Amino acid sequence: MLMVGDAHPTWLWRLESNLIDAVRKLTASYVLGFTIQTMQLPSKYILDREGIKLNAYRLICYFYANKEIARRSDPESINDNIAKLEDKYFFSEISKLLIEISISLRVLDDQMKSLPQDSEIRQFYDLAMDNANRHHNCMMLDKMSLREVCNKIIHADLVEPHIQETEDGGHEIDHYNWLGWSEDIEHSGDKAIPKPDPIKWKHLTNNVRLGGKYKGKQWWHLLEIPVFVEAIDELLA
Hints:
Number of domains: 1
Order of helices and strands: HEEHHHHEHEEH
Number of strands: 5
Shape: elongated
Largest sheet: 3 strands, antiparallel
Helix content: 40-55%
Strand content: 5-15%
Number of helices: 7
Radius of gyration: 22 Å
Oligomer: single chain
């Protein structure tokens, strides 16, 4: 279970400039390497759109899996093997996926816009992008196009997944505590035995706070990961 600790004391991580540059270069070569593998849309896309959609699927899986891992892990323990794996890999994997997806989509957009406006591929793509932008607002508090969202992700120097604390009785330990409480009452006949307190546990929401600067001015946006993934799927369907 990802927790606030020494490794990530404030639930944020900063992508150092050298890491960003390295990932961008790697992603650019990865993206351009798909010039041969094309998909029909009804003609050919230059990029491998299935590869982009697969990365989007991986991204949403990381966020959805977090809550289940947290629900099954003892929040008081630091020795849960699955939670330790998540704590080790989550941040680096999410940062790479966000950048790769965003660069891929922006390169795709550039390629489509370089085509003649009366081209069948360009018209098909423009319609898909218009629909994605109209149906999905990826930033919770700010209206912007999918391309603008990608630009914010690429240029963000601070990424902060939102975390929430809950004690709703839904943790796996709560289940065992309630069973134990019921058995104690049944065996002792003492109905005055107090109910167990719900376990307090933390998990990520599906929102990520992005921060950066443009011309010296600080900006902040709240990215909704599920909406972002839905917009990508609609664009590349």
